[in-house]
Amino acid sequence: MLPIILALSVAHVLSMLGAFTFPTLIPQFQALWGLTNTEAGWISGIYLAAYAAAAPVLIALTDRMDARRIYLFGAALTTASLLLFALYADGFWSALFLRVMSGIGLAGTYMPGLRMLIDRIDASQRARAVPLYTAGFSLGSALSYGFSGAAADAFGWQWAFAGAGLAAVVACLIAFAQRPAVHESHAARHGWLLDFRPVLRNRPAMGYVLGYAAHTWELFAFRSWVVAFLVAAAAAQGAAPQGWMEPATVATLGALIAVAASIGGAEIATSRGRAGTVAVYMLLSTLIAAGIGFGFGLPYWLLAVLALIYAGVIQLDSAALTTGAIETADPARRGATLAVHSLLGFLGGFVGALVIGVVLDATGGEGARAWGLAFLSVAVVGLLGMAALLAGTWRHRSA
After folding, report:
1. Coil, helix or strand for 238?
2. Distance separating alpha carbons of residues 385 and 344, to the nearest angstrom
3. Lowest-pLDDT range of 16-20, 236-240, 313-317
4. Structure pTM?
5. Which CATH superfamily is domain 2-181+200-392 in?
């Protein structure tokens, strides 16, 4: 089963190459197009809002048809959106529209790709396969940061988007080459596609889903703004960071650290009790979120190290939360459960990325106070997510 896990994980990473191209280049686009922080937050966050809007339909459809068909649609849309961005984006509205297309493309690849995987492996392999696949999100993010910064510096921002579009073509080809699903869907093929009431009544699964929503709020708030945060801190200190401390490089390294953190965090959670261990992860992450923005004036090298630590801690709970949702889901409604999981999760990601920009504009956009309050808002949401997880899984702590 290793070849299918490897193939779909590689496709997942390639489809993600354009996910953080815009956030990586926010300072450049603000200078080029005159974007406010709020407008930049909208362009970053709308990607996740579009994902959240499309995910319920696209992922729920995997209960009724082979997820490969959905994946091919998503990869093709991702390709088109990135190439069109390279050719035609020239300001706020065009960028916003094309990021909507990209977000729908992600909805057609991320969780449908996971469903494509779990329908092609034995149930006994899911606890290991799911973290490996979902870790591809962080690896894809890391490569997106690194590739976007390098390509934009060397060839211009248009080639950063075009190169990511070509990578999505390869992802499409990999998915097309996969054999039909081994396991038939257990779901009834009749009834309303978007009837999520049974999922919402599944308290343990919803505990993981709501925890995931808080996780993605925090994750995308951080990943959408970490480069801008470090650029602002370096400028305030008159620093000119080089090598590993360059802001886009820090973001890349942080996403790479997150790959190991996601896999390792899931392994520890599986062996020690998933819900309780994930709650500890979430508490640690919340504490860092509450303080990192107020550390704006710290020496730049120390701030960069804190950003790397935070990037790893944020991701400790990611795969464990998704695995928990899958394992506590009704097998007949696994696709529907993943749809709700993604809907609420990435809706949280959209709002998180947007709220950072709104708070920055409301507080002057500069200095420790502005950045501190922006990240403090993330910490509050993290605490709420931890409480929802513990409340939902109170009688299922051994899950």
Report:
1. coil
2. 12
3. 236-240
4. 0.78
5. MFS general substrate transporter like domains (1.20.1250.20)
